[in-house]
Amino acid sequence: MHELNLDELSALLAVFARAGVQDGGDTEGQLLARIRQLHAEREEMESMDFDDCLGGACKL
After folding, report:
1. Its domain of life (predicted)?
2. Where are the alpha helices (DSSP H) in the chain?
3. What's this model's pTM, rounded to 2 decimal places?
4. How far apart are CA 20 and CA 26, in angstroms?
């Protein structure tokens, strides 16, 4: 399956915001929560400088 990149996840979050979807128990709210989590994880990964990992300084 194709993984979404950071720009695609950001676009999805914008669509959910324009649609007025809130975190919650319904399917849309659960999907929004998952997309927010994926966005945060992807953002963290893309912001890492892997040169900082030399010598075991970071944990992946």
Report:
1. Bacteria
2. 6-19, 27-47
3. 0.76
4. 13
